[in-house]
Amino acid sequence: MPQASTISVLVVDDQLTMRALIRNALQQIGFKDIREAPDGEEALKNLLAKPANLVISDFNMPKMDGLALLRAVRSHPPIRQTAFVMLTGRADRELVQRAVQFGVNNYCVKPFTVQGLREKIEQVFGQLT
Amino acid sequence: MTHHNPSEDTERAIKVHVTQGESHVTTDPNVVMTTVLGSCISACIRDPQSGVGGMNHFLLPDSGDGRGTGGDAVRYGAYAMELLINELLKKGARRERLEAKIFGGAKLFDGLSDVGASNSAFAERFLRDEGIPIVSSSTGGVSARRVEFWPASGRVRQRLVAVDNAPQDVRRPAPAPMPAASSGDVDLF
Questions:
Q1: What is the ipTM of this complex?
Q2: Which of A16, A62, A112 comes nearest B130 by C-beta?
């Protein structure tokens, strides 16, 4: 069983409040290595400079949205294997289908609970300790 | 008070009522958004330059963590605000030009925690953290509010509603001392 504290995470959202909420939820789950980026463009630069094990990304963002970030991650060999969880709104069925096509590992519907986010991450990494 | 705008004439206005859990965004200068608030909060956010504006209406349950960042209630509130802001940006608003007016957060229920106050505190904190200025607000108190928002001009008309005259969903569950009687229409914001 993987330890959450050994998994590095990059949180990508244009809203500071949402980043703080996700960080708080991740800390409750046991994650310790958490970085943030305000949009896809910054996230990609960040990942290429220092890869992460997991990206948790919003969809609607300026400059580069979540789907474009996902495609960019999957097309850069050094970071291609990064686990990617997309945060979506309730009515985004089509977005989820497109994200699956581009290789998303899982998605989490906002507004999410800590337990809900944990389950989505565990579906990718296995049960976390 | 803003100048008179012909589109604000009642006959020409297209009224859109925003109920709890909804948000609505428009670029139509003839639209006036209306809502009735008890403990709930409405954020009226607009980009004055592009004329895009919208309103949401939400109520966060009292999680005891209304001012923090850990509660599920706050997660819900952040989502409600995000829905509105994303829709504004999609319709052409620019984030750096957004300005907000907030209403609601009254304490209509005696003997319970002041969920209205924690809702107001959440909205104020969210907007401050996101760098969206609050150019006007009317929150708290013990009366329900009937709010009309003209996104094109940014004008808001608020009318305090005696609780017993408010719609069922914002009404006090049991008789209680009346707040100040219903006042006339007042342009305050």
A1: 0.77
A2: A16
For residue A44, the Cα-to-chain-centroid distance in whole angstroms is: 12
Q: Which letter, b or e, does each residue of A96-125 get, where b requires 16 or more Cβ atoms within 10 Å of its Cβ?
A: bebbeebebbbbbbbbbebebbbebbbebb
Q: Does A36 lie at the interface with B, CB-CB under 8 angstroms?
A: no
Paired residues of A83 in beta bridges: A54
Give the tens place of pLDDT for each residue, B106-128: 988 776 678 889 899 999 999 99
Query: What is the 8-class DSSP label of residue B141?
Result: S
- Which residues neighbour A49 within 8 Å (Cβ) at sequence distance 6 or greater? none
Nearest-CB residue to A18 (from B72, B78, B90): B78
Residue B44 is a catalytic residue: no
In this complex, do B79 and A62 lie within 8 Å of one another by their Cβ atoms?
no
- CA–CA distance, A127 with A116 (Å, rounded to integer): 13
pTM over 0.90: no
* Dihedrals phi, psi of A70, to nearest 5 degrees: -60, -45
Residue keyed to tokens 């966060």: B60
Say which amino acid occupies B85.
I
